[in-house]
Amino acid sequence: MALNNFLFAQCVCYFLAFLFSFVVVVPLSENGHDFRGRCLLFTEGMWLSANLTVQERERFTVQEWGPPAACRFGLLTSLLSLLLAAAHAWRTLFFLCKGHEGSFLYAFLNLLVSAFVVFLVFIASTIVSVGFTMWCDAVTEKGTVPHSCEELQGVDLELNVDNSAFYDQFAIAQVGGAPGRGPRQEGG
């Protein structure tokens, strides 16, 4: 009976890992499509005025887009986590329904693979969080723009991309759907 409870708990955890991975995969892939393959993580840019004598900021200009590998690594890591969680959930459910037990070797290999994926997820989440904070710092000029990063997703930045949901996409990807978290709110 204790084995069944343990297998059931494992199956539930794998299913939750699958859901959280899915919650990350969807917004990251949508952002890649919206930005036409450009990566906003670690992007450098500034606001330029059409008339330099007037201090009004009019247009955001990207000096250098972020490395595509930064966005791809987060997406690939979440896809790997999604597939691995689905495979483990299915196998654990199979063990639970059929009454089979895994071997010690299977448990050890499962531990190693899961630890490696956790390490990759930690690295990817750090890259996404730091890179997105750098984007928000660039687009708000570290808080000197009268809009927050979240408000600027509603402004056409004239970058030849669809920036209408970038904040929502990365806020969801960073926290797995928990509201109220993400990069610090700056500006008015």
UniProtKB/TrEMBL annotation:
It is a multi-pass membrane protein. The keyword Zinc-finger does not apply. PANTHER family: TRANSMEMBRANE PROTEIN 179. The keyword Transmembrane applies. Pfam families: Claudin_TMEM179-179B (PF26158). It is found in: Membrane. InterPro entries: TMEM179 (IPR029673), TMEM179-179B (IPR059010). The chain crosses the membrane at residues 6-28, 69-91, 103-124. This is Transmembrane protein 179. Keywords: Membrane, Transmembrane, Transmembrane helix. It comes from the Eukaryota. Belongs to the TMEM179 family. It comes from Rhinolophus ferrumequinum (Greater horseshoe bat).
